[in-house]
Hints:
By secondary structure, this protein is mostly helical. Among the domains are: about 75-135, Endolytic murein transglycosylase (Dna Ligase, domain 1, 2-Layer Sandwich); about 145-225, no CATH class; about 235-335, no CATH class. The chain contains 13 helices and six strands. The protein has helices spanning about 20-25, 25-65, 85-95, 100-110, 125-135, 155-160, 170-180, 210-225, 240-255, 260-270, 280-285, 325-330, 355-365, and strands at about 75-80, 120-125, 145-150, 200-205, 340, 350. The strands form three sheets. Strands 1-2 form a two-stranded antiparallel sheet. Strands 3-4 form a two-stranded antiparallel ribbon. It is elongated, with a radius of gyration of 41 Å.
Amino acid sequence: MSDDLIPEGHDLAPAASARPSDLGSPSMPRRRRRGGRVITLLIVLALVLLLPMAAAFGWYWMQVHPGGKAGAARSIEVKEGWGVSDIGDALARNNIIGSSLAFRVYVALDGKRTFSAGKYEFHQHMGLADAVNVLRTGPTVTYGKLALPPGLTIDEIATRVGQQPGLSKDKFLAAAKSGQVRSVYEPANISNLEGLTWPDTYFITEKEDETAILRRLVGAFDKNANELGLAGATQNGVTPYQTIIVASLIQTEAKLEDDRPLIASVVYNRLRDKMPLQIDATLLYARGNKSGPIYNSDKQIDSPYNTYKVSGLPPTPISTVTRASLLAAMNPATTAFKFYVLADKNGKHAFATTLAEHDKNVAEARKKGLLG
């Protein structure tokens, strides 16, 4: 074929410089741009995640070791039954530490989660590490546990006080008779705190003497009686102090809560009708010994507390009382009952209006072996 048949500028094969491989691939710069964006995104994500963690760690470290000088001294009482949250809240509230949350975290990491009740000496802004070291060392003032269940006499309370290290039963009784401590419900002509202390479990410090403890017990009674409205309890023909006496009779006689208002009604009905109360618990108080059965000879004891011989209420309460007994004395059930006797081993009483009904109930109780 003749060369002059091929048009000028149209070679049969492309020039070597025009090979596709030399023209370059458009996908390579696109991959580089995409890879750069991924790296940038990872860096941003790392910063987003790490910066708060770094800030949180820095904050926590400052809570542990705040630096600078400790502030003013602060005495904190860790009460019996307090948990880590309670302690942390108290420390934060008094600016000893900066955060109760940080305290809980620190204690959880530390592993020791219980601390002794008592008074501790801290300084403001001392930080978590130093505050926990103070707690580990133990309180500067420790507590003794004084358990006073309901129904105790002042002599029985004194015995329990005397069992505390460094305290004396005789000194407690002397304080009770001295007139240094008085209840707001104690009449002017009475110098006897029987029934005017509150049954509870108390945690006492080694710095409290017998008089200080007595003041706490009487103060607790006045507080609880005030909350119940005892000061205005003049119904049923008795004074507030006499209401406490009735409550002490209920306390020593009732075994079940449901019986308390019913026993109260018996007491008031017999007082109204000028009948001797004939309550066995007053005989036990009169003879000064609660142990053992009651004998006929006990009913002959010459004592103002012997309600078999003496009409009316005893001159003072015969034991400490609960809120339930006080409420029953303030709000007796409306009944015609004048007698009661134990009806079952659970402590339920049978109530009666007439002596004949009562005698039947007594006979039933004897059959069941409930009476001596």
